[in-house]
């Protein structure tokens, strides 16, 4: 069992000041708060489309949301959604593997790849590599998400906003990072025609992938085109298309060695256990397109029709370590560092998502009360088609990464196809009761139909459910710049018992929808020099678990996962310095479980304390030079659902960077340099419990990055 020494928030803050006496003054037009490197305080005008309440600023909304803008993504060297784990204390890792798709937790709950992600507000499937080259910002809504999603995990929603041709852009970027990854990208936008009614934006990127992790070389590319047309002052038509591909071997995790947590100092974080001669890359391809019509009906009302389609293709392949048959342990590796190695291949996976959102938004007054109303309907269709997969024993591997085995036999087994059809009716209303007091109401009714069928045409399931999720909040503004709020809402998850022979006595049965509930109380303040917020939340999510008192046992209701916590955030500017702090204290536990070993335990891979601190400094006398520093710190994590004593220790990581904007005639060159994990700290960064198995992922070693962006 690893020793667990909780970090001190005060000690971490002092260490940050000592190690990173650097900062960067935020650009005046930055729209996001609390990024890792480029920090800009949220202002009155900062809004998030995902919040769903029109043009009301986040600083005056009774919810917690974050917006991370394009410049912040560039300054952090962000390549994927995993970058969010360095930007907000409520976001953490959840089985984040190099070469695979990103997985996040928010407020301790894992976001569902199929239901908790949006693109320009429309549902997408995140079981793929999501490129950020053509994204203008990422919006994060924290808390139970029933107000915005028919079904989803309760932690929150992430929304990716596509770059549009809002201004003239001619930029090229060359970047280097890691062992020898090299990126080239171009961003071009222009407006033309009478009254500049037409706009076009093109993003192209290609990258050779060579991270610090060994045996993980790959490549990726992206092409994206966005255009708009304003045929009349009150009409806007927007269209965009994106195609991307990434091919790269993925990274299996380490694990417990018998009953022992291996020392992170004794593990080389560059070792990739997916290094067999027969290992193949994971290939993630995606094509996405959307069309949006916005029509202003009059000064107070507008209508919108928004259609999106996503086509994903995946070759999922891995030399997969799993368990130790010689010791009878199937949730960990062997005591001597060996493990059973499997040959896993699921090729030509196809996932299709189509969505159509029709909405109406406007303002009106009745009985002396002002209303801001949004209502609409969202239709979604999901389809997943798979071929038979290979999952066969290949031999014995070792955590030193030196064992070589032959590939497993090409024995085929069933996979499961899936179809879903959903219709969601929603209404949201902000009612101004007095100049200081407002009430916020939301209601979403979802009708869903889901079917599954194995690739051999057997073991089908087919069920329908109707669910309704309400949300209500009260918001009181004590004085300009100081408000308090209280909110309550529900979220929904829908589940059918897996139809695997011999696994469950009620296989194929549709279960009652899981209704999570959240109560949130918060206070927000803003001045010319500082924005701050303090929020307390209580989320209760029902849980289904197998009854192991009989074999095979049924999947049944088994209490809940209750997460209670406090979040705080401060952004401040003092002269040339900018400071940002985000912190979360979280008490997460299983409650009312029939299993006494599980009841009262903290869920695996959920830290109790998280601190994200950033500081920036605009160097006087040298215009354009900004020095940057930050720290990410998380407390210990448990490894097993029924054993809270086995843990990995908490850790802290320091990052440094700099940006220099160099003027040459009328053009600007932007130089960026950064080093993540500057102290080359060795630690287990996360401990996901996946597929009934403990995994450990090491913190990446010290990683350098350099980039140059130039006006064309």
What report would you give on this structure?
The chain has 712 residues and is mainly β. It contains 2 helices and 38 strands. The chain has helices at residues 9-19, 70-76; strands at residues 64-69, 91-93, 104-106, 109-110, 117-119, 122-123, 135-142, 156-162, 169-177, 181-192, 198-209, 218-232, 235-248, 282-296, 301-321, 338-366, 369-385, 389-398, 412-413, 416-432, 437-454, 461-479, 482-493, 514-526, 530-546, 555-574, 577-591, 609-618, 625-634, 637-640, 643-648, 651-664, 667-676, 684-686, 689-690, 693-694, 697-698, 703-711. It has a 22-stranded antiparallel barrel. A hairpin with a 6-residue loop joins β28 and β29 (625-634). The N and C termini lie far apart (56 Å). Mean pLDDT is 90; it is low at 1-45.
Mean pLDDT equals 90
Proportion of residues in β-strands:
over 45%
User: Uncertain segments of ≥5 residues (pLDDT<50)?
Assistant: 1-45
Span between N and C termini?
56 Å
What characteristics describe this protein?
712 residues, 22-stranded antiparallel β-barrel, 2 helices, 55% strand
